[in-house]
Amino acid sequence: MESSLLRALMKLASTRKARPVATPLLVELFGHESGVPFMTYESYPFEYTIRRADSGCYYQVNHRLGESTVQALREVVRRVSAELDPSIVEPLTFKRLIQVLTQHGAEKLASLQSAGKVKELSELVAYDAIGLSRLLALAKDDCVTEFYVDSEDSAIYLDHSKVGRCETRIVLTERERRAVETHLDTFSGYTLDFSTPSLKNDLEISGARLRISLDLDPISVNRFSLDVRRLNVRSLNLGDLIGMNVLSSEASAFLVAWLELSGNVTITGETGTGKTTLLNALDEAVNPKLRRVYIEDAVETRDLLEKGYHQMKIKVDPFERNGKGVRTKETEIVKALHRSPDMVILSEIQSEEHSRAFFHALSAGIRGIQTFHASSIEQAVRRWTNVHGVPRQSLLDLGVLVQMARPDRLKPFRAVSRICQILAESGEPRLRDIYDRDREFHLQRIAAWDRVAQPEGKTHEELLGRISEILGRTEEVLIPE
């Protein structure tokens, strides 16, 4: 990895040194659109605008820099790139590279009285120097939850938390595409080549943790495709989700009580339905004194250590490594048995190996929260039993299953559509619904409490008592500080 990084830094330095004239900034490529905006906001030095058209919503970014500032920044970017000494980028990480470039940019900008906002501008210098300044603009917009590129010539399109799917006219240049490829290759710990043309890695850009998935030729027919998901979208707690009609207060209290009484919760749904958002909200609402062990390939869970929660996090190799990794999720799931967890948060169960390890852990008494990709709970059951070879009797260890839905894929609304249990009837596992949506799309309990099973070893009185307790202290549990 070190030699790869050094080659990248030397290439950056030597390329810039060969350019005596300051080249235009990448952010100058943002275009101006006509039409009346219906939403405008900013995060200096960028301004974001949403415009409506007959075909949907258009998203636009512009920089808010005067011409004199732009000219000054061009020269600073040139000098910072030309003077970069790879030997001082220690330790060899993406974060350290940005720190070094930002510091050098700040030193040179400090002498320019007209620049102002040195912190923001020096950050822009750092990202422009490595070819990622327009990705910086998207990272600084908290409303952008995910953005996509389908080919070398395709414009970016994105999911916006306020308006849903938006088109843009932003087409990545060759330099930007190469920058994404270089930094993913350098800092992922893996190597892009013909046999492994896909990479996934987390990068922190201006405080936003981004999970970047890149596919190149030959697996990408159009030679380049990109999916960038924001992992630390503004924290939504259970109080927020209740207010957004994602689920009801009683259903929230039921799920929290179930977890605190050592029950298991599996959240199912298609991509982009809010599975991880609900997982994080439940995690934050459950008693912070419980020892949590997290096993994730992309770290999508919140860091709650500063709030007094007990968290042990383990990062494993991405599933996309196709068995080439040495830190596999299935291995760590089994090893979790020896880490004395009160709860295990598995994030996503993806493969047959993951499923078998997961159900092995359940049979050994491990409980917690996990997500599983399926369009319905019935489909999830079929995948486990028919595709992943999980014995039907093992389904009885699942506890509670939650179905997430996104009624309109082009709009931002997501919700819990159903909560059920898998119970034994005549010796066979059967689904029993506890909550479902009515005709007005309100989540209602449809099972009497005496028909709802309790976590193993607990009584109905304990479950109902815990639910009542949680509902009685809503401000503390459902809306943590």
How would you sum up this structure in a few lines?
The model has no long low-confidence stretch (mean pLDDT 87). This protein is 33% helix and 25% strand.
Topology, please?
Layout: H1 2-17, E1 37-43, E2 46-53, E3 56-63, H2 67-82, H3 94-109, H4 118-129, H5 133-139, E4 144-149, E5 157-160, E6 164-167, H6 174-187, E7 198-205, E8 208-216, E9 224-230, H7 238-243, H8 249-260, E10 265-269, H9 275-285, E11 291-296, E12 310-315, H10 329-335, E13 343-349, H11 352-363, E14 368-373, H12 377-387, E15 400-405, E16 415-425, E17 428-437, E18 443-445, H13 460-472, H14 474-477
Parallel strand pairs: 3-6, 10-14, 10-15, 11-12, 11-13, 13-14
Antiparallel strand pairs: 1-2, 2-3, 4-5, 4-9, 5-6, 7-8, 8-9, 15-16, 16-17, 17-18
Helix pairs in contact: 1-2, 1-6, 2-3, 2-4, 3-4, 8-13, 10-11
